[in-house]
Specification:
CATH topology of the largest domain: Transposase Inhibitor Protein From Tn5, Chain A, domain 1
Strand order of the largest sheet: 5-4-1-6-7-10-9-8
Number of helices: 15
Distance between the termini: 36 Å
CATH class of the largest domain: Alpha Beta
Strand content: 15-25%
Order of helices and strands: HHHHHHEHEEEEHEHEHEEEHHHEHHE
Number of strands: 12
Number of domains: 2
Radius of gyration: 23 Å
CATH superfamily of the largest domain: Transposase Inhibitor Protein From Tn5, Chain A, domain 1
Structural class: alpha+beta
């Protein structure tokens, strides 16, 4: 199945899920949305799928003007804020999971690197609105030097298919949650989806531990983990070493082999990678290339925070945070499908003699998708108009700038940037 067809299937499945009373029943709070009120369950869901990063008053005015087919009532923002609290945020996690399940069931041939599919696991801190409920759910932290300055953050974590540009599983947790425990949940998802065969999972520095490495070995996950420079494994490595992690009969563990590789960077510094890939055809320079294949997961977090404005939440409760988190991830996956399909069309029709190469404009696609998605779900736009979106994205392509690189900024953080009282106008 082509990516545009998969995209249409995903949107159609999401629409059917939302329109199904049986599916919706488990996602509403008990005794809520059962009597006929001004604001229905489906209308609240469509509002959340529709709303931009503007103020709630602006969103309420625009949805009544633009989504005429759903007859959105004239209500206050306080009424809507209260109503959304009665919708379980895992409804939107299920919608995100629909995008994952349909994609991997229908993609057919997946992209690979030397015969391996590549996944990356990483986390990122998410700035949250300060509120009592967020302090209780995500944890309370204190500023320095003023200990009276309280704030809260969350840890977002994802497993990301770097070659297919697709988020497979994600969670949002307390900021001080253990990254390794969250990573194991990601690995279990790969196992449940049965997409981990012939795949390599790439971890950044901070994930390695003997327990984490053992989990990968025992569950047949090929992995590459960056080591800290002060680890004994790193200090003992000169070029490449093969060593053994000893087992402990009391803990019912056994000896396992570990391959450690020293990688030289362009600036002369060294990095150390631990892996359970013993294929000698994958040489040390190839491991350097393999490790840096994880970089798209960093770009994905940048996309979520910059293009989707993930941290500009329209609600200040844990329910609202999780609702918007999974909505953005779902839309990111659909946008990735459209971009990859348009990129294929551009490659098929481009002239090899052209001086410049082009690609689909991701920001343009995200903006158009955000504008159209609620209209697809409410049947105000027909799914056949996906062809119009693809044609627009094909026309509004961007020139590829080869060899671009930027020095990494190592400036210390100058403070939080999340101010909920500063809303954009659109």
């Amino acid at each position: 199945m082509k990516r545009n067809e998969i995209c249409s299937s995903i949107v159609q499945a999401i629409k059917q899920y939302i329109d199904s009373p049986d599916c919706m029943e488990i996602h509403r709070a008990p005794s809520k949305f059962i009597r006929k009120r001004k604001l229905s369950f489906q209308q609240v869901i469509l509002y959340l799928l529709y709303s931009s990063k503007a103020s709630m008053n602006q969103n309420l005015a625009m949805i009544r003007q633009e989504l005429i087919s759903i007859s959105f009532p004239d209500i206050t923002k306080q009424a809507l804020s209260k109503a959304r609290q009665f919708i379980h945020p895992y409804l939107f996690r299920d919608l995100f999971n629909i995008s994952v399940d349909i994609f991997y069931r229908n993609i057919g041939t997946r992209k690979d690197w030397h015969g391996y599919h590549l996944f990356a696991i990483d986390g990122s801190k998410i700035e949250l609105p300060n509120s009592k409920s967020n302090f209780e759910h995500f944890g309370e932290m204190f500023g320095y030097p003023d200990s009276n300055r309280k704030f809260t953050m969350a840890l977002a974590s994802t497993v990301y298919d770097v070659l297919e540009d697709y988020i497979v599983h994600a969670s949002i947790n307390r900021y001080l949650a253990g990254e390794r425990a969250v990573a194991i949940e990601h690995l279990k998802t790969l196992e449940a989806l049965r997409i981990y065969e012939n795949a390599v999972v790439i971890f950044d520095r901070g994930y390695y531990s003997e327990g984490m490495f053992r989990y990968c070995v025992e569950h047949n996950h090929l992995c590459v983990m960056r080591l800290r420079e002060n680890f004994k494994l790193s200090k003992n490595c000169k070029g490449e070493t093969l060593t053994t992690l000893p087992g402990n009969p009391k803990e019912n563990t056994y000896d396992i082999d570990i391959r450690v590789i020293e990688v030289s960077l362009d600036d002369g510094s060294k990095e150390y990678l631990a892996t359970n890939i013993f294929d000698k055809s994958i040489t040390a320079p190839m491991f350097k290339e393999l490790y840096f294949k994880r970089w798209p997961i960093e770009i994905k977090y940048h996309e979520l925070k910059s293009s989707f404005k993930l941290e500009e939440f329209n609600g200040a409760t844990p329910v609202a945070i999780m609702q918007e988190f999974f909505i953005n991830l779902m839309l990111s996956n659909i946008a990735s499908l459209i971009k990859n399909h348009v990129d294929e069309l551009i490659d098929e029709t481009s002239n090899p003699a052209n001086k410049y190469r082009y690609q689909a404009n991701r920001s343009f696609i995200i903006g158009q998708l955000k504008y159209r998605f609620a209209r697809y779900i409410s049947a105000q736009l027909d799914l056949n108009t996906f062809d119009d979106l693809i044609a627009l994205a094909y026309k509004n392509r961007s020139q590829i700038q080869p060899g671009r690189s930027f020095a990494r900024k190592r400036n210390k953080a100058i403070g939080r940037t999340h101010f909920r009282n500063k809303k954009v106008a659109f």
